[in-house]
Amino acid sequence: MTFRQLTLAAATALLFSLPATAQDKLKIATVDMQTLFKEYHRTTEAQREVNVERAKIQQNNNERLETIRALEGELQGLRKQLDDPSLSDKRKQELFKDFQMKTQEGVALDRERREFLQRRNTALNEKMMQKMRGILEEIRKLVEDRAKSDAYDYVFDKSGLSTSQVPFLLYTKDATDITAGLLGVLNKDAPAPTPEGGK
To answer: Shortest CA distance to 46 belongs to which of 122, 118, 127?
Structure first.
């Protein structure tokens, strides 16, 4: 069989298979993963926990800064005393030694504060990323289960963007949006909202 005959046979087979494919219409759904993620009660709860942790870290940082500022105040007082011409050389040496020690202490405290801040923020970010990954995986599994149970051929994330920041789906005809139904399933066990200020 020549190449031309092989191509003709393939084209003929393709033509005869098209009507069958056209009869089997694809069942397509869309979902807004971003909405599901943002409006899922577990995401809100996780974000609240992260905010509480961040506030604790910031409070600890502020306390450390107060200690450092108090030390800076002491250093300014020592500097003024060192500028006093009526002091004896022996007293100036004592003050200078004290000034150097407090300066080193301040540098060490500030370095410790920065390291603490970086360590705690890094740990919190990792913890948050793990929680978010778990939540996204839970949502993805729910979407997959719904797609299988409702016999969808494809489910597209309409909130997704291409590499050029253009929406992946610009237009869909006859696609069912399953976002609202899935959001209802996700939030069916959500705790009742608490009134502001009352916990």
So the answer is: 127
Kindly give the pairing relationship between strand 176-177 and strand 154-157: unpaired
List Cβ<8 Å contacts ≥24 apart for 164-173: 169/30, 172/28, 172/30
Residue by residue, DSSP assigns 140-157 as: HHHHHHHHHHTT-SEEEE
Any alpha helices (H) in 24-88, and if so which ranges?
33-39, 41-82
pTM of the predicted model as reported, rounded to 2 decimal places: 0.68
Residue 179's nearest CA partner among 46, 41, 29 is: 29
The two tokens of residue 24 are: 């089997």
**Domain parsing of the chain, residue ranges:** 27-186
Asked whether 139 and 40 are in contact (CB, 8 A), the reply is yes
For 8-17, what is each residue's pLDDT tens digit? 455 445 445 5
